[in-house]
UniProtKB/TrEMBL annotation:
<dbReference type="GO" id="GO:0016757">
    <property type="term" value="F:glycosyltransferase activity"/>
</dbReference>
<keyword id="KW-0808">Transferase</keyword>
<feature type="domain" description="Glycosyltransferase 2-like">
    <location>
        <begin position="45"/>
        <end position="159"/>
    </location>
</feature>
<protein>
    <submittedName>
        <fullName>Glycosyltransferase family A protein</fullName>
        <ecNumber>2.4.-.-</ecNumber>
    </submittedName>
</protein>
<dbReference type="Pfam" id="PF00535">
    <property type="entry name" value="Glycos_transf_2"/>
</dbReference>
<dbReference type="InterPro" id="IPR029044">
    <property type="entry name" value="Nucleotide-diphossugar_trans"/>
</dbReference>
<keyword id="KW-0328">Glycosyltransferase</keyword>
<dbReference type="InterPro" id="IPR001173">
    <property type="entry name" value="Glyco_trans_2-like"/>
</dbReference>
């Protein structure tokens, strides 16, 4: 039986002062071979985040069937840290995307940062990312790690805005080439991502004097929640590879007419699966900094870009990056030699 009325029924709207959520899926099944240093890497990840995120932030940790000691550590983090307000445990490894979707769908924040558990956050990462959302109202996905080759991928709206809108394309000198090289190194010795030219200049988009790098990766990225709300509602049946992130993140962002950008300087590290001395040295620098302030980001509604404009953007991206025009066009916007860039 039921006696009386639940008082929550009369509260029509949910309200929160928190506007930024960080979601981190964690999968550490054991402590051998590939996962030998995984827990130590994750500790650098979560403690760097706790030291650098502002007070308007909350953190969700999703345990994808990790070792029991990892589960205990996650529960300990939840008990001891106010900013970690959600820890989910799954007895199956649901994969990165399903873990993210599980967390995102049940929260209210307009900005959602997704990050792998091997990311170390630097001081001011959040402030610099949020500044891009403020200065580019149609930004949909922003990374704190610039990548000079990402201008090619899912950037149709960037090109449309540069050709027909209020933004301008221009090559600029890479602010921190050594940090970009460090990112490539973190991917393993078999990966060659950047040429010498990529470490010298990257393609940037500017609006009213504010500049950001074209394109972004998503091992750590901040995304407007509309990308999840208006994207596909189906689950992901592939854990990591096979274009699963394209389907659930990249394509919805582009289909909404939103921009894909990165910060000019590097504000996070990809650590990989092996600890190195430099990681602890950099973490010590983070420890010495004061906590971040928040930007008072206010979520702005945006008009969804028409399918025609998105198609035009894709067409211009294809034309401008074609072998017939790319070299000439890139020289026109500040690259001395656009060949093989």
């Amino acid at each position: 039986m039921r006696i009386g009325s639940n008082p929550e029924k009369f509260k029509k709207e949910l309200e929160t002062e928190i506007y930024h959520r960080v979601v981190i899926p964690v999968y550490i099944p054991h402590f051998e071979d590939y996962f030998k240093d995984a827990l130590e890497i994750f500790k650098l990840n979560i403690h760097s985040l706790l030291k650098t995120c502002h007070e308007k932030t909350r953190i969700t940790l999703f345990n994808n069937n990790s070792h029991s000691l990892v589960k205990e550590y996650l529960d300990e983090l939840y008990r001891d840290n106010e900013k970690i307000d959600q820890v989910f445990h799954s007895k199956e490894n649901l994969g990165k995307i399903n873990a993210i979707l599980s967390a995102v769908k049940g929260n209210l924040e307009p900005l959602i940062t997704i990050a792998d558990s091997d990311v170390m956050f630097k001081h001011n990462w959040q402030k610099e990312v949020e500044k891009i959302f403020i200065n580019f109202p149609k930004a949909g996905l922003v990374s704190p790690v610039p990548n000079s080759v990402s201008y090619k991928y899912y950037t149709a709206n960037n090109f449309f805005d540069a050709v027909f809108g209020s933004s301008k394309l221009r090559f600029q000198k890479v602010v921190e080439p050594s940090e970009m090289q460090r990112f490539e190194d973190s991917l393993g010795p078999e990966v060659s991502l950047f040429s010498e030219k990529h470490l010298e200049k990257y393609l940037t988009l500017s609006r009213k004097g504010f500049r950001a790098v074209m394109g972004a990766g998503h091992f750590v990225a901040t995304i407007r929640r509309e990308v999840f709300d208006k994207g596909t509602n189906s689950p992901a049946f592939i854990k990591i590879q096979g274009g699963v992130e394209n389907k659930f993140i990249d394509k919805p962002n582009e289909d909404l007419g939103l921009l894909r950008l990165s910060t000019m300087s590097n504000y996070a590290y990809h650590l990989g699966n092996v600890t190195e001395d430099w990681m602890f040295e950099e973490f010590q620098k983070i420890s010495e900094n004061k906590p971040n302030s928040f930007t008072e980001y206010s979520n702005t509604n945006f008009l969804k870009t028409s399918k025609l404009k998105i198609k035009i953007g894709k067409a211009f991206r294809k034309i401008l990056l074609s072998k017939f025009l790319k070299k000439k066009y890139f020289k026109m916007i500040g690259l001395d030699d656009g060949k093989n860039y």
